[in-house]
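TA notes. Do not distribute before section.
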Amino acid sequence: MPILASLPGLNLLSSLPSNPPQNDTTSSTPSPSPPIPIPKYPPPRSRNPKTNVPRSNPALSIPHRRSNYRKPVQKGVISTDGDRCVIVGENGVSYKLPGAPFEFQYSYSETPNAEPIAIREPAYLPFAPPTMPRPWTGKAPLKKSKKNIPLFDSFNPPPPGKKGVKHVEKPGPFPFGKYPKEGKTREEILGEPLKKWEIKMLVKPLLSDNRQVNLGRDGLTHNMLDLIHTHWKRRRVCKIKCKGVPTVDMDNVCRHIEEKTGGKIIHRVGGVVYLFRGRNYNYRTRPQYPVMLWKPATPVYPKLIQEAPEGLTKAEADEFRKKGKSLLPICTLAKNGMYASLVKDVRDAFEECPLVKIDCKGLQPSDYKKIGAKLKELVPCILLSFDDEQILMWRGRDWKSMYGDTSSNLVPVKADILSGIDNSAKSSDDSGTPDSQRVVSSPKMMSLWRRAIESNKALLLEELALGPDAVLDKVEEFEGMSLAIEHSCEALVLSSEDGSSSSSSAEFKGGSYSEDENDIYSSDDIIDDEYYDDNSFEEVDPSIPLGLLPVDNIAERLRRESK
């Protein structure tokens, strides 16, 4: 470093030259090109373009279920399309088509009785238009097929052994010598009422069969009508299994099924219904209904829960709701369950408490609200709350007991020992003497006691001062009398003029022991308007054989004396 500093004209702290020397292009070698070309990306797009975006198709802006579309409606026609129109009435929203036998609805059995106050979508008919041009597909339409496919005729079904054809049941059943005939009205298609043996023959093969129509929370829907006729195409009886909300009122479901399909319910067990198509049913002449392409949005109905229900002030209603929080529910409803006994359970619960609560945990809100609306009409009652997935009901001020006046149901304490009434519920009369002590029994228990006494199945001991031996004698005497009344049957003894007698065998009211050969077609076997609810198709044998009762000994003695 000292040597460099001593050199003349050398400045170690001088800066670099401002203009660097130019490189000699002739002497420098060109730089090698990269092996992969550098990609050229387009310029980035601006996030907020100022260009005008074209408007979307108006068909995509139709209100849907999650939109806040609400249009108030009144009773009458709200939309028309030529001869087809949408009507709002007592049955909710219905659709009237030219030539239709009745006004179409999405659900026939689960429509509330209240009139809707608004609709959630524009009033369109959920059916295909009457005329629709063929859309252009780039190809000419297909030529008409030369095959002449015959229509399915129930009166002329294909032979049983035909290849590729499923089993088809013939019309009927018919008595000997009778054949199917064309019918137009419901009575003509159903034909003569079925006998009990015919019902057994039709229903018994379907008891364990899983070919059925499932009826759920929407009840009897419009498209289910065509499905039932599809089942009737090959079978005489259609099996319908009902679950969920519609089972609260099974009579209503059965009535709508018979009205809309034209069939006849011949057997019903719980939520399972067996629908007979008729003796003269023909699939070729069945009523054909248009298919509903989508489920219409449910209209808006008045609120079920009011702050101050009828007969209560707001303070009283809040007090009832507060008490209902600590009230135990009478039952818990399962999802897709069978609720046929729910109305009876609620009525029985109102006999003991003015408030009744039902637990509905696990059910959809729309389901237990529909159940509450049905109970409000069938019980009847007043709905107070749907909080915590529970239905809270009040029986109302105009409630009347099913068993009469409860204040007059006073019976002696000693006479209530057999009924299981707790002795702690004793109450004294105005006199206050021990002999006048009385207890208040429930109206249901008093009704059962009264019915048992009238049918000689119970005995009221008026002489309360009887000893143990006297009471035992009374009980033994009553036991023999009640058994004779319960197990005896009508006996008829006929005597002739010449002294000989002949007695006919004991004859039941149902005619099961009749010796008439034509009894199988008697009027006793015809089912008229009642549903056949017998769960068992077999005869029930009596618990005591004939000939072992005192009344049989009396008949035998009279028979011997007449000889």
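Switch to the second chain here.
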Amino acid sequence: MESERELLLVEENPRKGGLRTMPFIIVNGSFERVASFGLQANLIIYLMTYYNMTAATGTIILGLWGALSNGLALFGAITADFYLGRYRAVAYGSISTLVGMIILWLTAMIPQLKSSPCSQIQHVCNGVTALQLVVLFSSFVFMSIGAGFVEPCSIIFGADQLENKKNPNNQRILESYFNWYYASSGISIILAVTVIVYIQDNYGWKVGFGVPAILMFLSVLMFQIGSPLYIKVKPKTTENLVIGLFQAAVVAFRKRNTRRPLSDCDEFYRWPLESDVLPPSKDFRCLNRACIIEDPQRDLNPDGSASNPWNLCSVEQVESLKALIKALPMWSTCFMIFVDINVFSFSLLQTKTMDRHIFPHFEVPAASFSVFMIAALTIWIAFYDRVLVPLLSKYTGQPRGLSPITRMGIGLISSGMSIALSAITESIRRQRAIEEGHEDDPNALVNMSAMWFVPQYALLGVAEATHAVGQVEFFYDLFPKSMSSIASSMYTVGTAVSSLIGSILVSGVDWLSSTGGKTSWLSSNINRGHIDYFFWLLSFLSFINFLYFLVVCRFYESLNDGSSRLSHVAEDKECDYRLLHES
């Protein structure tokens, strides 16, 4: 009923929403991405230079920052849907990001907010004060909060402006909007890792951090200018899905000692006559206790609804919880590929010491090499969708060419190959640096082209393209329709967990490899360290993860054969359990 009232509001007030709002929303999202990704690409160099962090410490800090940003995306989506509304979430998030960028820019402008670079002659480094670190980390926190609200809400807020189910072209308009939104996102990231990085390398950090702050200010301004035109959908007042899942788990735990037989169907399960038949599945039968009616007088209201949702849950809630549990093993296989992507910041230190000239008078900035990954990702998605899908569907019988699980496996293999190539390339680079007498000079230029790193960046782009899209499709197939939003959010939460795992891994390797006074594998002097050993370790872990992936796949053979969304079909001997409408 709420969605119908919203649609009527759109029709009664044609001055709200529509294509006229798209420039404000797309510009807001595009400028936010240019500013955010432009800051992140080169930030490891800033931390090492002005905060005297080692390469390992800087990577750990950036990993934790990424984990916080991605983890808050789920919190931001829930808060927007049920408390703030998407308009206020995007507005508040954009302002928070702007505040964080201004604080980071101030650290470059005000000498007292950062440490002085280490003396290359006397090898003396000034210590970093607690106040300087507090200011730096506060900028990260503000930007993480902003990203947590903007990233999950901006694209859906744009869809709110175009949603009109009575329009026969509604689906085509929405598909066109999503295509343009993602196209603008790709262009924004490319501009961030090229133009913004070039400015930072050639004009310094004051200008390099100032430009993103200005772009973010324009992003906030453009979004607010369009405010009178927006359709502002109010937050939902109904019970949200996350709370429903938590209730099902709590009720099942409370009823863990229930000994009533599960065969007496009419007495124990919620059963309003007007509901569709939906028997609880046999998987995780212990959870079925959550929808057992132990005392109808106590558990049910006169209209048949649950008197206390923390004592009795619907079959739908229980089945949703089961679907989430089923997804967790496959979800855990995705961590390693994102760990590989997150620790690729070490490649920035490698390419910075190599010949990056494409033409005699044009040198690619070290932080801009990730553009090869983005380009490979974009090209592969287009090539797979337009060329491979029509060809493969004839042989596999699947409209999507390859099953989601197969594509996820290809992504895992590609990421492992990329890291192995990085280990080989680093071994060659390090050997040449030592032969040329640069063992004690990590900033010396090695006579070796940085284009050696292009293949691994391209492989990593293909890996992310195949795995990420396959993973989202897999979860969408596995979950019931009511959990479609959870399917997309699991990808974001997975990247957050991977960032945290990557930080822990870097910290552990740095500590273990430096015990006994030895030079750490992840030393800031990469000519003395052994980043190649670290990459070989990641390759081995990627191989182990792929074997784990193959074991997990045995539990999902039905989806791998091309079946769509899972359904629970009642057997002849099972009782006709029915859903209870929500109170």
